[in-house]
Amino acid sequence: MSGRKAFQRNGATPEFKMALVGALGVGKSALTVKYITRRFIMEYDPDLEGTYTKHEDWDGHDVIVHVMDTCDKEDSDPGRYLKWADAFLIVYSITNRQTFDVARDYMESISIYLKSQGRECPVALVGNKIDLERYRQVNKAEGSSLATEYDSVFYETTAAEEYELVEKVFHRVIQEAHHDKYGHILQQLYIADDRTTSWGQQQPQSQQSAQQLSQHPHLHQQQQQRRPKSPKGASDKKDEKNQQKKTLNKFFKIFN
Ligand SMILES: Nc1nc2c(ncn2[C@@H]2O[C@H](COP(=O)(O)OP(=O)(O)OP(=O)(O)O)[C@@H](O)[C@H]2O)c(=O)[nH]1
């Protein structure tokens, strides 16, 4: 049975929740707003955290995507996105090695958390700001290697240039999340990495709504109940490793 047929029989609108996490200043907000509005907005309030919703039109069918642009602070509870999300984008800046180290910590912590819950979610490692190649501190092979270590997909991208670069990352994660939820072979449903097939055009957002979002990034903020999802085997590669760094110790409080 093809994914498409199953999708058509199942009347419910597919819905996915993904959380962007990472160090401050890596471009989580820029990537979120780029995906939602197709626009690059230069400055955000670093203390703001929000959840945004976008309707994708795939081959005439509605797909709802919720994106949480997180902002972790010392005392904040990561449970707000760990429990909520169907998928995670762990973002670092290729121009800042420290943010790559933080991304590594997130990879580890999220992996351990999911395993403790018997859950598995798509996790993508995303190296952002490739438009600033001249300032690169983390080479592509390092990112790729870290992602491989955790059985995650890896992308380098930039919020500052073509929308398609950002779209590709989000669509790949949606692909994976769709597979987890509906158990379909993704290549039959959506796109291959080179985007040769099925993803429909984005529903164009009105200029007005894009402007409103840019001026009030939390316009579409909303809370949603998490939908159940089918588990997928977690990476076993890090079972023995328990080297949580201070900044991420809070993760353990959730499930210990
Ligand atoms: N050149 C370039 N600048 C970017 C890119 N993404 C984000 N920025 C800039 O980097 C700065 C930080 O981006 P944010 O999106 O606020 O980063 P964040 O990860 O959300 O961090 P906080 O807002 O501190 O939580 C802003 O000035 C952005 O305009 C990118 O891909 N390329």
From TrEMBL:
Task: Name the top EC class.
Answer: hydrolase
According to its UniProt entry, this protein's organism is: Lymnaea stagnalis
Which InterPro entries does the record associate with it?
A: P-loop_NTPase, Ras-related_GTPase, Small_GTP-bd, Small_GTPase
Region annotation Disordered: where it falls in the sequence: 197-248
Tell me its EC number(s), please: 3.6.5.2
Q: Which NCBIfam families match?
A: small_GTP
Which named protein is this?
small monomeric GTPase
Segments of skewed composition (Low complexity): 201-225
Family matches, as Gene3D superfamilies: P-loop containing nucleotide triphosphate hydrolases
